[in-house]
Amino acid sequence: MGKRNRNRGRNGGGRDGGAEGKSDRDSGWGAGYADIIKENKLFEQYYQELKIVPEGEFEEFMEAMREPLPATIRITGYKSHAKEILHTLKEKYFKDIQDLEIDGQKIEAPQALSWYPDEQAWHTNMSRKILRKSPLLEKFHQFLVSETECGNISRQEAVSMIPPLLLKIEPHHKILDMCAAPGSKTAQLIEMLHSDMDVPFPEGFVIANDVDNKRCYLLVHQAKRLNSPCIMVVNHDASCIPRLMVEQNGTKDVLFYDRVLCDVPCSGDGTMRKNIDVWKKWTTSNSLHLHGLQLRIAVRGVEQLAVSGRMVYSTCSLNPIEDEAVIASLLEKSEGALELVDASADLPGLKYMPGITSWKLMTKEGQWYSDWSEVPTNRHTQIRPTMFPPTDPEKLQSMKLERCMRILPHHQNTGGFFVAVLMKKGPMPWNRRQPKVTVDSVKIANLIGLNVLCLLLTCKMKLFGFKEDPFVFLTEDDPVFPPIQTFYNLSSDFPKLNVLTRTHEGKKRHLYMVSKELRNVLLNNSERMKVINTGVKVWSRNNDGEQFGCAFRLAQEGIYTLNPYIRARVINISVEDVKVLLTEENPFLSRLGEDAHAQAKKLEMGSIVLRYQPDLKDPDAPQCPIELCGWRGKTSIRAFVPRNERLHYLRMVGVEVFKDKQGKKEGGASESQEGNAENTEEPGQEEDTAEQEQSDTEQNGSAQSKTNNSEDVSST
C-alpha cells in the first residue's frame, strides 16, 4: 500500500497494510516511532468537508491518526499447525504476560482481533523498550521473531487481513492476486486453499502478480514459506495482465478466475499511523494521479473474473476519489454485469462506515469541484469525469455504494482502509459476444482495447528475453523416475507429470512439483507470461547418491506434498524421538526409542522420512502431524531441517530455545559438540547457483548442525 514509488514501475505493485519497505522492516515487533510533526491542515480540511467521519468524532479520528499503530500478528500455516502455535501462545506466553508488572505498570497482554476467525490474529501495544525490560517478554519476543522467520507467524497490519477473508476462498478456486507484493495477503489465500491438510494438491491455485521485478522476489520469499505446489508468481503490469489459456477436454479455453484480489496502489493516507512521512507528503494530487490507474486495474480484474465469481477491490486510502469513484465508474461501465455484495455479516465484530454516495474533489491549491461541468478545460487532463459521483439519482441509488466498507482508525485502533466486494453476474458489455475460442480468435481479441498494450509488452519480453530459468516438465518415461519410484516405493497414483526442473540440459539438480491445474497453465502460456517462480521443491540431488540406490534425497520443503505417496523409507517416531533428533548432532540409532530403533535398523543407508502422528490420548503432546526429512547413516541418524523450522518443532514438543540478552547460551552445547558440527554421513550436495534465491531454505546439511549449538535448549 501507500504512495507508489516512481522507481517501481507504472503501477507500483501491491501492498499489505502499508508500504512495507525499509521503514517497516526495520521497525520490528512493537518498534517506536521517530519524532515528527503530525500535522497537515489540507488533510484535515479535505476530510472535514467530505464528512467521511461521523459527526462529533473528527477530533477523535485525528488523535487516533497521530498515535502509533499497534503491532499485529497473524498465525499462518495450515490448520492443525496453526492451532498448535495458538495453543503455545495462549498457554505459555500470554499467561505469563498477563500478570506481569514492569516499573509499577501492569503489562497489557495481547488481544485477539474480534473479527478474525478462530483467534488467529492478535494485536498489542507493547513497545520494544518494554520487551527488553523483562526476561519473560524477551522470550516472547524471540519466539515471535523465530516463528516469523519460518513463516508460522506473519507481521501484518490488521486491516490488511480483511480482503482475503471477504473473498470466501474454497480449495477449488482459481485465484488471481493482481498487485500481490510483498505477499501477506497472498499467504492468506494460499492457506485458505490448503484448508484440508490431507489434500496435497487442491484443485485451485493462486497466480500472484506484481509489476516490480524486485518485489516479485519478496513475494516469492513470502509464498515459499508455505511450501505450496499451488502458487505461481508472475511479473506483469496489472492494468494489462495477459489473458491466459488452459486446455480442457482437448480444446483451449480462456482462463477465468473464480476469485480476484484487486488491492491497488494508492495514496496511502490510511497508513499515516505507520508511514509517518505521509503527513508531510499528502496532497489531493496523489489521488488524482492514481485514480485512472486504479480504474484500469479494476477493469482488467473484472474482465478476467468468471461469471458468478467474486472480486475484492481495496485500498489503504480514505479518499473517495480512489474508493467509491472507482467502484461507481466500474459499475457504470459494467451495464449491470457487476453488483456490489453486501458483506456486512461476513466479519462479525468488524466496525466500519458504509460507503458514501456524495463527494467533492479538491485540488492541492484548495479549489473545490462538485461536478465535472465545473472543471475548467485546462484541468481536463488531470481531473476526469469518472472521479465524480453519478449525476442520475436512480443510477446512483441502484449502485448501492453504501455496501462499500470504510474502516476508520479510531473505531478499533487500526489503520484506515477501504474495501468493496463485487460479484460478476454476466460478461462485461465488450465481452458479451464470446467467439469460439481458438488460438487465432484469441490473437484477434488481443488486438482490442487494453490487450494491445499486453501484446506490445509480451513482444518486448520476447525481444529481450526472460532472465528466469526455464520451467521444464519431466516426461513420464524420464530415466530419473525409476530409481526414485523404487527407492521410496511411490504409490501408483503419484502424479509424475507434475514434476518439473529448471534446466533443459545437464544433470537435474532439484525437482519441483506443481498441481495439475498449474501445470496446465504453464504449458499453455509460456509465450504469454513471465513466470518468476512456481512449484515446491521435493527432491535434491546428492553427489554420490547412486550408491545408496537413489540419486535424489527428500527436501524438507516438499515433504508434506510428497507424504501421501511415499510408502517406504519411513520411520514412525515419538515426541521423545523428535527431541533427540532435533537437539543432538548425529545421534546413534540406539538413541531412538525402541520402536523407532527397530524400524531404522531395517533400512539401508539413505534419505528417510521421520514421521510423528498425533496421539489423541495425550493432550499435552502436539496434536498435528510432523514430517521431517532425515538421513539414515551406518550407525547414526539425523534430521535435515532448516534452522527456524527446527526451533519451531522443538517448541511444539516442549523444548524451549532461548538466548540471553548477551546472545550467550544458558547451559549451551560443549566445545566438542561445536567442533563436530561439520560431521555428517550424507554425501555432498551440489549447489545450484541458478536458484540462489532459494538457498536460504536449502542449508540443511552441515551448516544446519552449527545452529543447534548456538541456542540454549531446555525442556519445559
TrEMBL record:
<dbReference type="InterPro" id="IPR023270">
    <property type="entry name" value="RCMT_NCL1"/>
</dbReference>
<dbReference type="GO" id="GO:0016428">
    <property type="term" value="F:tRNA (cytidine-5-)-methyltransferase activity"/>
</dbReference>
<keyword id="KW-0489">Methyltransferase</keyword>
<feature type="binding site">
    <location>
        <begin position="179"/>
        <end position="185"/>
    </location>
    <ligand>
        <name>S-adenosyl-L-methionine</name>
    </ligand>
</feature>
<keyword id="KW-0820">tRNA-binding</keyword>
<feature type="binding site">
    <location>
        <position position="210"/>
    </location>
    <ligand>
        <name>S-adenosyl-L-methionine</name>
    </ligand>
</feature>
<feature type="active site" description="Nucleophile">
    <location>
        <position position="316"/>
    </location>
</feature>
<feature type="compositionally biased region" description="Polar residues">
    <location>
        <begin position="697"/>
        <end position="716"/>
    </location>
</feature>
<keyword id="KW-0539">Nucleus</keyword>
<feature type="binding site">
    <location>
        <position position="237"/>
    </location>
    <ligand>
        <name>S-adenosyl-L-methionine</name>
    </ligand>
</feature>
<protein>
    <recommendedName>
        <fullName>tRNA (cytosine(34)-C(5))-methyltransferase</fullName>
        <ecNumber>2.1.1.203</ecNumber>
    </recommendedName>
</protein>
<feature type="domain" description="SAM-dependent MTase RsmB/NOP-type">
    <location>
        <begin position="61"/>
        <end position="425"/>
    </location>
</feature>
<keyword id="KW-0949">S-adenosyl-L-methionine</keyword>
<dbReference type="Pfam" id="PF01189">
    <property type="entry name" value="Methyltr_RsmB-F"/>
</dbReference>
<keyword id="KW-0808">Transferase</keyword>
<dbReference type="GO" id="GO:0005576">
    <property type="term" value="C:extracellular region"/>
</dbReference>
<dbReference type="InterPro" id="IPR001678">
    <property type="entry name" value="MeTrfase_RsmB-F_NOP2_dom"/>
</dbReference>
<keyword id="KW-0694">RNA-binding</keyword>
<dbReference type="Pfam" id="PF25376">
    <property type="entry name" value="Pre-PUA_NSUN2"/>
</dbReference>
<feature type="region of interest" description="Disordered">
    <location>
        <begin position="1"/>
        <end position="27"/>
    </location>
</feature>
<dbReference type="InterPro" id="IPR057285">
    <property type="entry name" value="Pre-PUA_NSUN2"/>
</dbReference>
<comment type="similarity">
    <text>Belongs to the class I-like SAM-binding methyltransferase superfamily. RsmB/NOP family.</text>
</comment>
<dbReference type="GO" id="GO:0000049">
    <property type="term" value="F:tRNA binding"/>
</dbReference>
<keyword id="KW-0819">tRNA processing</keyword>
<feature type="binding site">
    <location>
        <position position="263"/>
    </location>
    <ligand>
        <name>S-adenosyl-L-methionine</name>
    </ligand>
</feature>
<dbReference type="InterPro" id="IPR029063">
    <property type="entry name" value="SAM-dependent_MTases_sf"/>
</dbReference>
<feature type="compositionally biased region" description="Basic and acidic residues">
    <location>
        <begin position="17"/>
        <end position="27"/>
    </location>
</feature>
<dbReference type="InterPro" id="IPR049560">
    <property type="entry name" value="MeTrfase_RsmB-F_NOP2_cat"/>
</dbReference>
<feature type="region of interest" description="Disordered">
    <location>
        <begin position="661"/>
        <end position="716"/>
    </location>
</feature>
<dbReference type="GO" id="GO:0005634">
    <property type="term" value="C:nucleus"/>
</dbReference>
<feature type="compositionally biased region" description="Acidic residues">
    <location>
        <begin position="679"/>
        <end position="696"/>
    </location>
</feature>
<dbReference type="GO" id="GO:0030488">
    <property type="term" value="P:tRNA methylation"/>
</dbReference>
<dbReference type="InterPro" id="IPR057286">
    <property type="entry name" value="PUA_NSUN2"/>
</dbReference>
<dbReference type="InterPro" id="IPR023267">
    <property type="entry name" value="RCMT"/>
</dbReference>
<dbReference type="Pfam" id="PF25378">
    <property type="entry name" value="PUA_NSUN2"/>
</dbReference>
<dbReference type="GO" id="GO:0005737">
    <property type="term" value="C:cytoplasm"/>
</dbReference>
